[in-house]
Amino acid sequence: MIRRLVDTLLLITLPLGAALLLGIAALLVPGTSARAHEPHHTIVQPDALKWAQPPTLPAGAQVAVLLGSPAKAGPFVLRLRFPAGFTVPPHKHSQDELVTVISGAFGIGSGETLDPAAIQVLPPGSFVHLPAGMPHYARTAVETVLQVNGMGPFDVVYIDPKDDPRKK
Ligand SMILES: [Cu+2]
């Protein structure tokens, strides 16, 4: 009798439990409404990068935009390629600059005046956060590729206006 009762209870509770689990699973898996905000993902293969001289950096630098645009509102991702023996004079940005070293060796220092002794050289895989408004400068001894992530609109303000290639 008790055995039959247990069996009956199991027969009732099992489908209930399964239905409940399915309901929870349906809640956990993003539905169409959540996906509507993310229509596609973006893949950029290394050979798809289109390099060009950026107007904001001294001659010799190359930029390739991977996602978004530093000129527009919203997140952007770009790569910078500096030749060997390259210097970015002291400058700042009104937004945070998030730098990842992809290859080469990235020399970075902070302050309004370039001090070669204060430059820290970072190997590939390193990350640097340069807070909005903080003056900094960069130097390379070998060709170096960086990835810069940030939020647009992104500006470059040189501490000494004479360093600005747009004013030359
Ligand atoms: Cu910078």
Unreliable spans are 21-27
Q: Please give the number of β-strands.
A: 10
- Helix content class: 10-25%
What ligands does this structure carry?
copper (II) ion
Strand content: 25-35%
Distance between the termini: 96 Å
Inertia-based shape: globular
Strand order of the largest sheet: 1-2-9-4-7
> In sequence order, what are the helices and strands, one letter per element?
HHEEEEEEEEEE
Q: What's the tally of helices?
A: 2
Largest sheet: 5 strands, antiparallel
Q: Mind telling me the C-alpha Rg?
A: 26 Å
Mean pLDDT reading = 87
Q: Would you tell me the structural class of the helices and strands?
A: alpha+beta
Draw up the topology in text.
Layout: H1 2-28, H2 32-35, E1 62-67, E2 74-82, E3 86-92, E4 97-103, E5 106-110, E6 120-122, E7 127-130, E8 136-140, E9 144-152, E10 157-158
Antiparallel strand pairs: 1-2, 2-9, 3-8, 3-10, 4-7, 4-9, 5-6, 5-8
The chain binds copper (II) ion (CU).
List keywords for this structure.
binds copper (II) ion; five-stranded antiparallel sheet; single chain; globular; 18% helix; alpha+beta; 168 residues
Structure overview:
The chain has 168 residues and is α+β, with helices and mostly antiparallel strands. Helices cover 18% and strands 34% of the residues. Strands 1-2-9-4-7 form a 5-stranded antiparallel β-sheet, with no helix packed on it. A 5-stranded antiparallel β-sheet has the order 6-5-8-3-10, with no helix packed on it. Strand 1 (62-67) and strand 2 (74-82) form a beta hairpin. The longest helix has 27 residues, at 2-28. The protein is globular and about 80 Å long. 18% of the residues are buried. Residues 21-27 have low confidence and may be disordered. The site of copper (II) ion (CU) has 5 residues, from loops.
